[in-house]
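Justification of resources, computational component.

The compute hours requested in this renewal are based largely on the per-chain cost of generating structure records like the one below. Each record pairs the submitted sequence with a full structure-token output. That output is archived, and it is also reused by downstream analysis tasks.
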Amino acid sequence: HKHVRAIEKELAGRLRAVAEHRTALQECAVHFVPRSGCFYLYLTLPARVPETRLINALRGQGVLVTPGYYYYSSRTFYEPGIRISLARTAPEDIHRGLEIIRREVRRFLG
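The structure output for this chain reads:
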């Protein structure tokens, strides 16, 4: 039980970090997919933001995300986006990464 409590405490800190950036990201038309998971976060992107170019820009700044298309079996239901791992990411890195994501999305939106 100690292990489970420790994991819950760590995850709560990571989710607090995410919550602090939600409004700023939504102002850029980036939305959090509800219940996308406890250990990852899926962010949908505005249509004007090219997913691959965004991912490359983020990678160049040390923010590693996974392309959203990896998680859809069909393009019929696909919503362009990126997936962020929370499993082994420290809250301060989540803060830094989400701020960079927000900044880069705004840059693409002009």
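The chain is about 45% helix and 15% strand. The helical segments are 2-19, 22-26, 51-59, 91-109.
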